[in-house]
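Why this split exists: single-chain examples teach little about how molecules sit against one another. For that reason, every record in the complexes split bundles all components of an assembly together and asks for one structure covering all of them. Below is a record exactly as it appears in the raw files.
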Amino acid sequence: MSKFEKYSLTNRIIVMKHSVYLWKRVLPLWLLPAALTAQSVSFSIKGTVTDEQGEPLIGAVVTLAERRVGTSTDTRGFYALEGTASEGRYTLVVSYVGYTTYRTAVEIRQGQPLVQDVALSSDILNLDEVIVTGNSPTSTRKQLGNAIGVVDGRSLERAGSNNTLGALSGKVAGAQISQNSGDPGGGFTIRLRGVSSIKGSSDPLYIVDGVIVDNSSQNVINRSADAMTVGLAAGQNRLIDINPNDIERIEVLNGASAAALYGSRASNGVVQIFTKRGRTGKPVIEFTTSASLSQLRKRVFVTKYPKRFGVKGNDRLETNQDRLTILLTLGFTEQQLINQGIGYVKVGSANRILITDQYDVTRYDYQDHIFRDAFGTDNHLSVRGGNERSNYFVSFGYSNNDGIIPNTNFTRYSARLRLNQELTSWATLSTGLSYARSGSQDMPNGNNFFNPISCMFIIDNVWDITERNADGTLKQVELVRVNPLSVIETFDIRQRTNRIISDINLKLFPFKGFRVDYTLGLDNYALQGNEFHPRLPYAGVAATFFPDGYIGVANSNVSQLNSDLLLSYETQIGEHITSTTTAGHQYQYGRTEFAGVEGRDLAPLIQNIAGASNLFTLPAQSIGEFALNGYFLQQTFGIKEQLFLTLAGRIDGSSYFSENNQNNFYPKASLSWVASELFRNSSLSNAISALKLRTSYGKAGNLTGIGFYDRFNNYPGSNLTGFPALLPPSQLNNPDVAPEVMTEIEGGFDLAVWKNRVGLSLTVYQQQIDNLAINRPLPPSIGGTSVVTNVGSMTNRGVELLLNAQPIRTSQFEWNVGFNFSRNVNEVSGVTGILSLRGSDGTQSALNGQPFGVFFGRYYARNDDGSLLLTSQGLAQPERGLVIPEAQFNENNLPSGALKDRIYRYGGNVFIPMRDANGQPLTTGTQELRKVLGNPFPDWVGAFITSLGYKKLTLNLQLDISQGNDVYNWNRITSNNVGFGPLAEKELKGEVPRGYVASIAGGVTGQRIQEEHVEDGSYVKLREIGLTYNLGRIGRGVDNLSVSLWGRNLYSWDNYQGFDPETNSAGQNDRVRGDDFGNVPIPRTFGIRLSGKF
Amino acid sequence: MKKYLLHLLCVSTLLLVSACQKEFLNPNAADGSQVIKTAEGLTALVVGIKKEFSVGATSALYNAISSNGLTTKELYVINTGNGELTALESGGGTVGGNNAFINNIWASCHKVKANAQLLIDNADNVRETGTNEMIKAYGYVFKALAIGTLANFWEQIPTEVVPVNEFLAGRRPTFKPRIDALREAIDLLNAAQVLVESTAPSAFFNNKVGTDIDIKNLVYALQARYNLMAGEYSAALDAANRVDLSKRSVFRFDAISQNPVFRTSLVNNNTYNGVVNFGLPDILQPDPADGRIPFYLGNNTAPVRVQGFFKNDADPIPLYLPGEITLIKAECLARLDRVSEAIAELDKVLTKTADPFGVTAKLSAYSGPTDKDAVLLEIYRQRCIELYMSGLKLEDSRRFGRPGPGQPGAERNRNFYPYPTVERDNNPNTPPDPPV
């Protein structure tokens, strides 16, 4: 223990006595400061901050702890801290990310300027980093018993993503981040330690500067664009309203043991975002400007084989008989085929008639026309400065990114203000105000049949989609379908968000060791969506595609408020024990209101809802409202700065909960031991620079598992031909429904070796989610299809590994390398039967003993050697057999024809594949069998991050890895069914029998063989690469000018046959993952960035 | 801002904050416990039950017409990418318990059944004569319609209503054979008959529910239909004779609550459509002069675009056709060996030139053999044509002993449907599936 710390210890005891006096005697006046009347003098402390090599550290933060004034070092590592304070001893704190925080005592005396140079030693484990828990910046990392991910804002800026979650991808152990859509405003999903709810959201709680912010994904466009009737669409997640350039740092609390203090909304973890703040000193203007080019990274296969099955209906192939010629024969009866001498076969058990004659066609690649090179720009300007009592940070951002589909775009204007004001020596006020206006121009989403990409996959590639009539309108393609260029050129679909996030934070330091923190946070936004499809200029298009035109208007208003009061008291008990006590109250209120109206059959020249003469659906309105009250208490004891014990608990009451479950308690305990303190001065410390062992336990809730009003028996209002109606509900009510509770235990260590050059962190955890709310399917004979019950449970078990090393660090050359690895194993239990999550013949399901969301579906009948068991006509067919309850299963009494070695079990049933006398799947008395075909969640994810610096040149590179995840590829099956996919080409060339594609598509030898959809989606992706040249000071004005060339998602090593295995056409949906239908692929992006300071 | 300042005050009284605790009622939906207390609530529920049965892609009406049509070859699938429809068209073992169409019939009918029971049980909360009775009568009729519709497609039916709290406590609905289910439906209709014969709908009731359904004649028509299905020919004949054939009972639609067969399928020209000559085999081919061919099938050349009751969003769909009642009379008479009377009723259908719904054959009278079997076969043919896409053909095909799946010249690809998987998974009382 240093000399200074001993001194401060005695000082603290004195103040503590004083405070006890105050607390007892003048309680109503406890806000009064202890040293209100002390004499102030001006002071000046100057110096240089360097690393161990003597290289200046730019931007190191220097503060006078007791006065809460600070500054940062300039490009030469120089700082000057000036202000007024009463004479006496103070603590000068110098901190810099990645270095051990340095504390030293300074004595301020009238007229005695101080010079204090500091050399920081690197801290690869960041043990001294201050971590915010429960809105209280009172812990350092070494006190924490749980792993926590911290990402520095600079690494987000250079990521080249306009979405904070996108920029975070690969940078946090335990977080699986994936981009769902390649739209310029496309959504991202983050899963911290896996999925933790079935019915509710698995999205973490997001907190920006103390404000709980909304990250929902709402559909204000594409509301009737749902040909698959599953209600799934890829949209934007609203964290996109936050400009990553404004972010100072992000802390990620992965699970309940870290997040217990956040209570009922924290079981998915917490992502805390801290934006940039002002600093004392002259105004500093910083700018970043970037230009980028995005393009389709990979094309999918389309055949160029110039033949087609069938008989031409007309020259442009616009008739019914020109449709779906690989699957069907439309427009002919068998007799007509015979009479006209047209060759055909009858295939499968359904005796489907398929024409075998072929004719010549020209084949096109529609990818030439529906994708383009897209440009983007991102500009950010900030000004920060201040004096000793107040400082400010102001920023403006503008970004405009075009999508790789023409006429798609995302634009964001953002402005942010942060003001800090010292009110008195014992009170500070901080307020933040941010405004964002996000706008996008969109196309219909995937999962419907008139998105330009779906349009491409549901018509054969035998039409010239660019062909026009004399008046310039596009010509018809396949009958019933829409020309993809009609969508691109004439549809007008937009959304706009206006959002204000503001906070007021008041900090009081009435006496030594005691602080009061009050934060009021408000997040408010209005999201407006407008959709316009003009009438299509050609006839015969299916009514579900709105050939008569469509107008949709919708808006969503979201407001959230949180009020946090926090009291903390830090004190010393005896010589070796420090104690920190924190108590708090939180109130949350949220309201969402959605309203929308749609119409079709449009009057000419009108683009608002008044032009719709057919309001085919009732106007929609939906309101949700909730309130939550939470109280918490946390106590931390630190022993000799090496052993830390924390105990905490929170009680929540919420309007979500039913009367029988009014209050919920979330406890937490954690233990951290900085073992290296034991051998700090021994020879062992040469080998091991730091070692921390930690473990923690905690509970947190997920109230989104219950809907706003699930406790009621809800009869929605409607009408039938003008008569008021109350509709019988499908979901019946359960008044006893309780919130989901996650219990987590984790343990691990942080180790730094080789003089802090190599850091290794390992964490293992187990999460048990109980009371898992499930929309338990009812036997429909009850009169409803589901009821919310707490019958389920789920576990997540996993390992997180983080390795950082700095193999080379000289004044000229620096090499950093990092690797993180996260593996999570999820298992569901308590589900009855097979809970289908998607509908419309999708396979995502929840079933006991399996990871949540697996693909459960029909599969190929196979021979013993694994090859396909084909029909006598050489067609594929689904496996068939018996499904019987386990209780009725007798292994010794199998029916004849049972394939004994291939029997398997799921969800309480035994599945028995059966063969008939000819060795074919038995068709009588059996059903098509289903099994688990794949898992959309990866076995593990990881990232390899490295940077190489040589003099003024820096190269950084990040590879993101996802292994073992599967994708349900609808695109490829559809491309075969319409005639241009790889298997369709084989059938045209005669390499597989006529009818083979149809046998997989279904209706020939059985239903669709869903196994064919599932593909390995493992990938290693070159997520980021950048080359930066730092020109340093240019002339007198510009400081620290740097130029970067960067790339994002440039290359992917994968075996996926679609565009990109990182995709989900169900967007940010929590349940349906790994779907790929008509979804915009993630582009590769190249950019150039210029940044500097004035 | 004032609100938040107030709030600030509120939280500063830290330990008294329970005052901030709120309870929010659902503004988006009515609570079931309130719905059943008033005449407004119960009549709105009557309309809601009608809508549940008749509107949308998951409605019993749409799914019954579609499934029945594909199973009995009235319809064909245009784009076999529609896997669930294609399975119904293929029939046999490809129709699985997870087929969405048969699941929808099952779920929608049972939802109607359970909510109709709420009408029956709570109608007495309404005092007004003519409203109380009508709420109850609609309850009986819709419960009977739900059970009867299920009896078209399944061998056994769980007719009892088990409340969800009893389900959560472990009670599971039990099944009864379809003949017993039909008898229960008939009992419900008989109870309704007493009410509709003694009391006329109140002005309030008509104002809230409408007069698209002529409830008295609907009761008689359904009594006739289900007695016929149950083999109670005399009772069926009596009921049929009570029906006023000039009256109409329809499910009415508009631009918002659309005709489900038109909006969900026919309008797209991509899911299913009709088969030339009603899909009838050679021996049952319609007379080319039959006026019902253009009525139902337009130009009757492949690909047929079905007309009938499914041409527009607002086309009403009849709950029963007058022709069905006449053919019930004919069939009952024939089965009761009153063949000449049967032919007389048959001729009314064949020679019909005016009909409340415009279903007119405009043919000459029956001139075929007059033996019972021949007349019954003709009645079957006329049912196939007159009642095209009414959802009744699977029952007819079985009742008339037409060739079933596996037999030469099969006219249907299933006899009964398998039980929905979701029922089986959650109700151990579910019987074994029929072989086909």
